[in-house]
Amino acid sequence: MNVRRSAAVLAAVAVLGAAAPAAADSSPSPTPQALPSALYGDTDPQYDGVWRQSLALLAQHAAGVEPPKAAVGWLTGQQCADGSFAPFRADPSAACDAKTMVDTNQTAAAVQALAALGGHDAVTDKAVGWLKSVQNKDGGWGYTAGSPSDTNSTSVVVGALAAAGEKPGEVRKGGRSPNDALLGLELPCTGKGAGAFAYQPEKDGSLTANADATAAGVLGALGRGLLVEPGKGDGAAGSCVKAATPEQAAANGAAHLAARSPPRGICSPRRPAPRTSPTSATPPTRWSPSPPKGRRRRRRSRTPGWRRTPPAGQRRAGPPPTRS
How far apart are CA 199 and CA 209, in angstroms? Predict the structure, then answer.
């Protein structure tokens, strides 16, 4: 796989990176000097160690680089006996207990990385089994087991199911699939945020467009994971159409994101500096408006520090305007 394609297939990693975890176990946070040598990054991994490691392994795989065995071993060693993953376990030899804060995002990311590398079926099968066990009745997943479904968590789990060889649309709980959950989190085509996905419903049940959730929702609705191949469309953004299928929901989300893109890219063009006349040796004299009664008119210049007396050897440019 060449470098150009590697950049394309990993575009989704940056999109879903914002779904990074926000909970950890009660293990003491390690100091930078105590970090495992096989762990990528030098910041505190207590909240995103497994997530970060998974993305690093996926990036290497996409670029055709074989990750170090120690790095892969660190990731597999973080799995709990029930198949779930916590963000960071300082002592992997200690069994997970009720205080170990496992979550769907870490687990799904680890599944995607290990499935891409291959040879870790026992680990991924157990993790997928745990993910299925914590699916919500609306067909989606929340960040932790039992928490309300959100677009980002549902989408990253969909990616894990697909990576492990499952058909996400057929993974159901209470008769509902992840597609049902995602369709329920997309804003209608009428009104503000048409076609976008919300992260979660507001307290009053309304949906608010969220760009990060929309990017995740597009991938989830298409049944894709963090590692994707470029699409085969014509590249043109369509209009929002009432979504009856996950594919149409994905198209609506993509159209919403395309409409929000700045016309000239992320950076605004730099405004050129104002030009000065190359033939003017002396800054022009400017005159203030008529002063209040009893005060004298004060000359002012564009050049700070020069008011009444011009620099030595220079003449004042032009006489003051005639009083009317």
Answer: 8
